[in-house]
From TrEMBL:
Residues 188-341 form the Cell envelope-related transcriptional attenuator domain. Pfam families: LytR_cpsA_psr. NCBIfam families: lytR_cpsA_psr (TIGR00350). This is Cell envelope-related transcriptional attenuator domain-containing protein. InterPro entries: LytR/CpsA/Psr_CW_biosynth (IPR050922), LytR_CpsA_psr (IPR004474). The chain crosses the membrane at residues 117-138. Keywords: Membrane, Transmembrane, Transmembrane helix.
Amino acid sequence: MESTVYRRGSDGKIVGTPEAKPVIEIPAPPVFAVTTYRAGDIGQTQAQPKIVADTPQPEVFAAPVSASPVVAAPLPASVETKPAQQQVKPSPKLPAVNLPKFSFGKSKSRFPRPVRYIRNIVLAYLGFYVVLGFHAAASLDKMPASSNVALADTAGTNWLLVGSDSREGLTKAERKELHTGKDEGSQRTDTIMVIHIDDSGKPTLVSLPRDSYITIPAHIALDGSSVEDRKNKINTAYGKGGAPLLVETVERNTGLHIDHYMEVGFKGIRDITDAVGGVNMCVPADVTDENSGLNLLAGCQELDGKNALAYVRMRYADPKGDLGRIERQQQFLSSVMKKVATPAVLLNPISMWKLVDAGTGSVNVGDGDSVMDISSLARAMRALSNGNGTLTTVPVSETDANTAAGSSVIWDDAAARELFVSLGAN
C-alpha cells in the first residue's frame, strides 16, 4: 500500500509525495466491523464501517519515516488513508462466575467476642470435668461387698452407706488430735444408712441405729470359724465378716436388695469437710464431750473437718443417744451436699480436685460400682439436701433395751416391715 508524505518546498508550498510503506496484512474472515477513514471534500476525514476478521488482528509493522517537519494540508479526494493500527471491537463479556474465596491467616469468627468468651469458658470446664472423671475412676478404692447369699432383686436402686470407725490413713498424732483412740484392729460401723432411689428418681434415706438388735446371718467368720444365725447388734456384723456380711445382714432384716456399697472412715469425714471449706451446722445447745473432744456453743456455725467429725461421732453427751447421733449424721450429709452444690465449690477446679482426692483417698466402694453410679448417688443426696426426698429412721419400739449384747435398740417389726415393703415395691 502507499502513503503520502507532505513537505514544504523551497517556494513555501506544500507538496505531497507518494511513498510506499511495507505492510504485513493477514486476511481474516469477516465477522465484526471496524472503521476506516476517508478524506472528505472539505478536508475532514469521514468514518465508514468495514467488515474484518473476528479474531484480533496482528499489529501492522510500518517502516520508519524520516522525522521532518510536516504540515497538515487538505487531502485529495482520491487519496485513502488507514490508521496505522486497526481498532478491534472488544469480545463479548463472559457471564460472571463466583469462585470460592480462600482466606489465609487469621479469619474472623462468626461469633461476637462475648459469645466466644463464654464458649471458651464452657469448653474449658467441660474438659476439666472430663479429666476429673478419669482421675476419680482411676483413684477409686474398691472392695468386695457382695452379699454371701443372693437376694431377689427389688424395685428401684439401693445403696448401703456406711461410716466405719476405721482409723486407716491417720497418723498417731492425728488420732490423738481427733480423739479417735487407737486402732483396735476390729472395725465397727458407727453409721448405717440405706438410700433407696425409686424408679422415678425420688430418694429415701433410712438410718439404721448402730445398736439395732437384729439377726446376724450364719457365716464364716474372719478367723475361719463357722457361726450360726444369732442375735446381736448390727454394728458387729462388719467386724465379724466385713462388708459382705454387713450387706447380707441388712438385706436379711430389711428385705431390700443392696445394689451398691460405699464406706467412709474417720479420715474421710474430716478430709471431705475441709475440701469443701467447712459445713454449716446448727447446734441446738452448748455441748462439751470429752470422748470426742467436742466443745461448741449453741447456734448455727461453720465447722471444720475436726469439729464436724467430733459432732457426728458424739453420743454420750446427747440425751437422745444413738437416735440423736443419727439426726446429726443426716444433718451433716445434707450440709455437705449443699456446700458441694454451691458455685464456690462446684465451679472451683481447685476445690473440686481436692474433694475428689479426699473422697477417693478415704472412701471405699463395692467392686462393681463405677463413677457413674457414684454420680447417681450424689444427685440423690443433693435432692435430699434440698428437701426433694425423705429422711427417716427405721421405726423402733425400744431405745434402751437390755439384751445379751447390752443396751440395744429394738425395731418395731410391723412398722419396719411396712416401710421396707413399700420401698421394695417402688
